[in-house]
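Hey, does this match?
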Amino acid sequence: MRVLVTGGVRSGKSRHAEGLLAGREDVTYVAPGPVLDDADWAARVAAHRARRPAAWRTLETGDLAGALAGAGHGPGHGAGHGAVLVDCLGTWLTRLLDDAEAWEEPSEALHALVGARLDEAAAALAGAAGDVVLVTNEVGLGVVPAHRSGRVFRDLLGLANQRLAAECEAVHLVVAGRVLVL
């Protein structure tokens, strides 16, 4: 099973994604976002951790391809054995651009950077032996951001969503806690 779960902020995406792997103990929860020193962020992370089964492993990494490469393989390979749940692609993209200090780079450079990482992640996803659930934000349904960084983020995440959805058997859209299988 390879599923991309998308929707707006606080739509119920993470809870739905976790439910897809309910009852499984062999799950690696990949948290690819930036490490922030922020009380609101810390509270959000704590809420996610409290809701997950204690047996699930947590892997905090910006190496999305490496984490996906381990899905279904033995220890020592990326995320480890069993299923992988990545939450979320939006925070992964933020970390990628932050780590590369690329927010102000020209569009061509941004697309090259993100495109290369997406190619690696898509190849790893296609070769994953275990179940993979990816969580992402649907950012293209609203207002056009006033600032360049917002437009860059929206456009690049839209490309990431399309690229990785192409490797999935299903896409689930979550709106107000309700799920529509696309």
